[in-house]
Write a structure and sequence with these properties.
single chain, 434 Repressor (Amino-terminal Domain), Rossmann fold, 3 domains, 40% helix
């Protein structure tokens, strides 16, 4: 039986793929004489444009992969999207970028939309899976539907998805030892919300190092991952007389530098600041930021490989691949001051 398809839809899909409307019609009606690659391109274009597939084709998953990110303002997320999106494209998949915005679609909304589009899999970067108090039902829905999923960085327990992570405990240790080697005894930690799993791991490592080092001051501040959040939290921390601040992201670190300057302090003369991520341009800030680099190229490629392995029905157990971070020393850290200046 031939499916009647609106001419506008035929024209839109044909233009998107670069084929004739007759070819699109043959694909949608299951006719022979069309190559597999063209057929897949037509079906993917149908999904991307938001058109519903004919009934006989709805059981097939599109070669679409959801790439769900919390934001694009932090430069680490566009960098990850480029690595993961490029890796997916090389394997013949089309990444669908889903970014949460204030007052916009939620993660659960995006998951519902992606399921409607018959996605082949989803990669989550920096999502609610890392937050203990956040909603998680949409992850369980994906699990129950058998949709391959990969998570990027530490997740809560019992989600049963593979994960690629930077070793947060090693990262915190690298930052702490660097500041200690410069003579800092008054070191603080500035990380994300209390229920954020990567922040919890950094906190556990920091607390252990602080106790073993017998620090005079080791305050901990939690903040939202924003410049303003970092500034507010660092302002509170500076009242304790810290001379070194370890941050859970580069954005928090830039907020800490702003707080120090607003308090009349210099970086690194009075206060040393260490970031986390090594997002692009961090070597161009004032001063260039000492930070812990996440190996996003290797991690992104591993995430793609793990996702494709699940789609190829390769037996894949829930596991976490831990990647080694690298401390990149620049000019935001220096020797501890002999007489720490009080915050203004």
């Amino acid at each position: 039986m031939t499916t009647r398809v609106p001419s506008r839809r035929l024209a839109d899909v044909a233009k998107k793929v670069g084929v004739s409307e007759a070819t699109v019609s043959r694909v949608l009606n299951g006719k022979a004489g069309v190559s597999d690659s063209t057929r897949e391109a037509v079906l993917t274009a149908l999904d991307v444009l938001g058109y519903e597939r004919p009934t006989q084709l709805r059981g097939e998953r599109a070669r679409l992969i959801g790439l769900v990110l919390p934001e694009l303002q932090n430069p680490i997320f566009p960098a990850l999207a480029e690595v993961i999106g490029g890796g997916l494209a090389q394997r013949g998949f089309t990444p669908v970028l889903c970014t949460r915005t204030a007052g916009g679609l939620s993660e659960a909304d995006y998951v519902s939309m992606l399921l409607d589009q018959h996605v082949s899999g989803v990669v989550f970067v920096g999502g609610h899976y890392a937050e203990q108090a956040a909603p998680h039902d949409h992850y369980r829905l994906l699990h129950n539907r058998g949709i391959p999923v990969v998570l990027f960085n530490a997740a809560i327990e019992n989600l049963d998805f593979p994960c690629v992570s930077t070793d947060d405990m090693t990262a915190a240790g690298q930052s702490f030892r660097h500041l200690a080697s410069l003579g800092h005894q008054r070191i603080g930690l500035l990380v994300g919300p209390e229920d954020h799993m990567p922040s919890r791991r950094k906190l556990a490592a920091f607390t252990g190092h602080a106790e073993r080092g017998g620090l005079e001051v080791a305050p901990v501040e939690h903040a939202l991952f924003s410049l303003e959040g970092g500034q507010a939290a660092a302002t509170r921390m500076l009242r304790h007389g810290v001379t070194g601040i370890i941050c859970g992201s580069d954005v928090l670190a830039l907020g800490a530098i702003r707080a120090a300057r607003r308090a009349g302090l210099t970086v690194p003369g009075d206060v040393s600041v260490v970031g986390y991520d090594d997002a692009w341009l961090m070597n161009c800030t004032d001063p260039p930021l000492t930070t812990v680099r996440q190996p996003i190229d290797s991690m992104g490629k591993a995430a793609v490989a793990m996702l494709v392995s699940q789609m190829d029905s390769v037996a894949f157990q829930k596991e976490e691949l831990l990647f080694e971070p690298e401390l990149v020393v620049r000019n935001s850290t220096g020797p501890a001051p002999d007489n720490p200046a009080p915050a203004g």
